[in-house]
Design a protein that fits this description.
The chain has about 200 residues and is mainly alpha-helical. It has 9 helices and 5 strands. The chain has one domain. Strand 4 and strand 5 form a beta hairpin. About 15% of the residues are buried.
């Protein structure tokens, strides 16, 4: 058996770009976690801010579904109601303004800010640290006519850098969710309810 310490993948957003990365050993994971402990704490705190806000927004949306429909279709057009299929009537009622969720003032802005903070920490802090640690070699494309190198990888568009960071995280035996203390998708419940869902949905 020949164990290799590296693996490679090709970017989907930058065709031809091949990234060779180090596989994480137990010791390497421990060192990476120590080096990125502050970053992971920030991500965990951001996820904790999202959870209650997201639950509150969901509760408002569920409550709106229970409100009686008082749209113009019901009040002024009984003939039209009888003329259309019940499924269409139900669809129209679900979409009418009287069924709109009534969010607490500032809730959606707070949720958007918390999600942005979470994404920014991953994009601006965690992924760069992960890429600097894991990437051993890059090849296949040029930047300004010069073959790409480890020193110029961050000159790529943000979405490509994000893709590389996320793919490295996916290839690793320990994902960012697991580093944060969450269970992997499909296993038992997370230690802190709601946080696994946050990691899965806000990324």
């Amino acid at each position: 058996m020949n164990y290799t310490t590296t693996t490679s993948f090709e970017s989907k957003l930058a065709p031809g770009l091949v990234i060779k990365v180090r596989k994480r050993s137990q010791e390497q994971r421990a060192k990476l976690n120590d080096n990125s402990a502050g970053i992971l704490t920030g991500i965990r705190d951001a996820a904790r801010k999202i959870a209650p806000l997201q639950d509150e927004a969901k509760d408002a949306e569920e409550a709106a579904k229970l409100e009686p429909c008082s749209c113009l279709l019901h009040e002024h057009s009984p003939v039209l109601i009888n003329a259309v299929a019940p499924e269409l009537t139900a669809h129209l009622c679900n979409k009418c303004p009287c069924r709109s969720a009534r969010y607490r003032e500032g809730l959606l802005n707070s949720l958007a800010d918390a999600r942005e903070q979470y994404h920014n920490l991953r994009r601006d802090k965690y992924y760069p640290a992960l890429i600097r640690w894991a990437v051993k070699e890059v090849s296949g494309i040029e930047i300004d006519g010069i073959p790409i190198t480890l020193d110029t990888i961050f000159e790529l568009p943000d979405e490509v850098v994000d893709e590389i960071g996320q793919e490295i995280d996916n290839l690793s035996s320990l994902t960012v969710a697991e580093q944060l203390g969450f269970k992997s998708p499909g296993t038992s419940s997370a230690p802190e309810a709601g946080l696994t869902e946050i990691v899965a949905t806000v990324i």
